[in-house]
């Protein structure tokens, strides 16, 4: 069965109030992330899937993010199959940073993409 091309969006086009799901690992998240993003590492994703479904029970779109777009593409594919409105953020956090989009850290140190 072919699901067609994976829905994706350029990092610069993610709305500022968009719901971002960050699937990177803890050390990557700690280095810098999108403020307000939900962090569920891909390695924990299946176990913690309920956290995401609760967060988007209103049907809003999920912008899935990793470092460059590979892991997030896999998670986006999975979410689309679960009938969740999900799009992959092309280029991930590297593209986000490159587009000059804001990043934060939990400890207030300067944010960067690991």
Automatic annotation (TrEMBL):
**For the Rhodanese domain, which residue ranges apply?**
14-105
Residues passing through the membrane, by range:
none
SMART domains (UniProt xref)? RHOD (SM00450)
**Which InterPro entries would you find in this protein's record?**
GlpE_sulfurtransferase, Rhodanese-like_dom, Rhodanese-like_dom_sf
Q: Could you tell me which SUPFAM superfamilies the record lists for this protein?
A: Rhodanese/Cell cycle control phosphatase
Q: What is this protein called?
A: Rhodanese-like domain-containing protein
